Amino acid sequence: MNIYKVKKTIYDSLTHVILAVVAITCVFPVFWMISSSLKDQTEIFTKISLFPETWNWGNYVTAFVKADFGQYFFNSVFYTIVGVFFIILIASLAAYAFARLEFPGKNIFFYVLIATLLIPIPGVFVPLYLLLKSLGLLDSRTGLLLCYISNGLAFGIFLLKGFFDELPKEVEEAALIDGCSRFGIYWRIALPLAKPAIATLVIMNSLTIWNEFLLALVVLQDKAKMPIQRGLMVFQGTFITDYPLLMAGLTIATIPIVIVYLLMQKHIVKGIAAGALKG
Amino acid sequence: MKITAKEKAQNLTFILPALLLFTVFSLYPILRTFELSVFQWNGIDKDMVFVGLAQYKHILFDNPQFWSSMANAGIITALALTLQNGLALLLALLVTRNIKGENIYRTIFFLPPVLSGIVVGLIWKFVYDGNFGILNHFLSVIGITGFADYAWLGNIKTALFSVAVVHMWKGFGYGFIILLAGLQTIPVELYEAAEVDGADAWQQFKNITFPLLIPIFTIVTILTILGSMQVFDLIYSMTNGGPAGHTDVPITKIYQYMNNGEFGYSTAMAVIFGIVLLIISFAQIYASKKLNYNEK
């Protein structure tokens, strides 16, 4: 072995040590959450061990059934699926129109839309609360969903318009001459071609809606309608000391998003890049 | 093909749902914020009392709590800018150098950004707990005693810093991913040429990597500022602004005023805070425009 190789080996090992320490730091709190969710309350309070003494899978049954996490979980699934579906449908229709069709007020609307991408959201929850109240949608699933859908539109339209702009026009023109309607072209040609962009949007919006908390906090009071992030805070306020149950709830809120992340990494990273460079 | 006025009107139906939702649930609330901010109103009374800019004046000149919440967010932001982005850059540089297992590291570093703020906050609240949190146990195992019952989030000396650490833990993977993408666009030939010329690692970093990474780094910087200034879920779940306001940030204050029924005052604060963020956003547009020029 020459000196260069020795140097490289030392350098690589040192690199791996640093990377591994950071990686462990990233994973450990998540591991600790799962491990604690399987302990019993006495063990949490009296001793610290990496793995549970006895594995209390029953905590999950209790969390799902008695602590309402089953209800919260299915609410979150519902909000995510319905919210993402309507974001994609409404945004793709509008994006197609912006890319391909002429209509009155086109430019003004597009500029206003892009401008609101820059306006920070935190300010608007007071008027949003008042608006939902006057529409009779406060503390309702519909009210929360409408907020989620409208929040996702601007970025969705922006991303899909960019994608539709790039698609070759020839196929569409041929279809038009053959008597296909504009909607038919959108539905049968443009939308299927936009699959990669739609996949990115589905993943990004799923992450956003699943993890959303502030709007759910402002809009909902009724426990039966709460998504899981909101439910966790209610639980932690009511049963302040039941840590294994809380950790089971946290795990239930985390598992789906981690699975989606592990399966869809490529799209998530792509979405992040698109989001970061949107300006 | 000529488009008739009738067709143009029909085309409107494509954007009608978006237009309607967007106007009602995004645009209208933004405009309403300005309107509400000049009234004193609790959201219940029929009469809204017009007070002009009095609430703005009060927030800016007579509300030290608002300024301390801004300062807290500023401290969190400053720590994130230096420590978090420094770590993100270091890790991105390490991973780019043909390290085995690059994908595994990348997957793991981006795990915290995927988790929700509430989940992260509640896990760490448990880790930080004075009596049975694992942090104090870990410290005593490695020989650092004196933190036996120390409540990290309950003590005014450490609460803000403890929250900032979690914020950085959650955020560094995000900067790491963007910087890594930026590093991968730098042509390998540049480094090969530099090596032939006898440039060492530091010279290569100084003369190739750093200058070419500046545009991406600018974007990461601005995203870090925007994200850190708007931190809410983490704070709400870990301390809710406590102890005694030492971890309050602008959004927790805006929420608290709203919750107390001071709707007008809360919106005035939101407008001031929004303007601060808007200025940062404009910096982002300016920076990414510059980036585009550099590419051309």
Q: Your description of this structure?
A:
The complex is a heterodimer of chains A (279) and B (296). With 279 residues, chain A is mostly helical. Chain A is 78% helix and 0% strand. Chain A has a single domain, classed as MetI-like (MetI-like fold), CATH 1.10.3720. Chain A is globular and about 75 Å long. Chain B is built from 13 helices and 2 strands; from the N terminus they run αββαααααααααααα. In chain B, strands 1-2 form a two-stranded antiparallel sheet. The interface between A and B is large, with 87 and 96 residues.
SS content category of chain A:
mainly alpha
| Helix-strand sequence of chain B | HEEHHHHHHHHHHHH
CATH superfamily membership of chain A: MetI-like
The biggest beta sheet of chain A is recorded as: none
Our count of domains of chain A comes out at: 1
Protein name (chain A): Sugar permease
Subcellular location (chain A): Cell membrane
Keywords (chain A): Cell membrane, Membrane, Transmembrane, Transmembrane helix, Transport
Transmembrane segments (chain A): 14-34, 77-99, 108-131, 143-164, 185-210, 243-264
